[in-house]
Amino acid sequence: GNSVTQMEGPVTLSEEAFLTINCTYTATGYPSLFWYVQYPGEGLQLLLKATKADDKGSNKGFEATYRKETTSFHLEKGSVQVSDSAVYFCALISGAGSYQLTFGKGTKLSVIP
Amino acid sequence: KAGVTQTPRYLIKTRGQQVTLSCSPISGHRSVSWYQQTPGQGLQFLFEYFSETQRNKGNFPGRFSGRQFSNSRSEMNVSTLELGDSALYLCASSLVGPKTYEQYFGPGTRLTVT
Question: Does B24 touch chain A (CB under 8 A)?
């Protein structure tokens, strides 16, 4: 079956630090990959996506590259802000006609001034 | 364009009762999915509906059911509530087409079972 493994949190960084959150996956076929973000008390927001190998998804300064050879989709940001404090989820959809997202456990990021 | 809306936002029920949660998708979105979020199990897929038909179902007991109406609005029902059903229930909608994999989530319904 499909699975997503994320680095365990929580992660605490100072403002303007570099962020990396590791994500690896197991899936049949060629999955589409996603990063979602959840702010306190809210639902999930789609942060970025990649649908094929070597695609780079980017949004709001965040980036992730679909690496098929290492089955990874690591999230990076060059300079985090306090407003980036949230829980980040890596997810995938795999299989023709599938609408079922498989999520990682989530990584809580806290950015301190 | 309005986002996904879910009602109610908060709900407290007693063991053994049943509950119905509602989800209105983004206008034009015809696929609606439901997820359960708990601290222990994380985010788990419940089911997905399109054109009033359930197309995918996750590994949940039959106490969890859903339906979709002709206007794409969806409801999910949990019967004979158990303490372990306490969770945030999230609804997501998506277009059917080239961007079908982009799912947009509502704020969720927080269900507490006592």
Answer: no
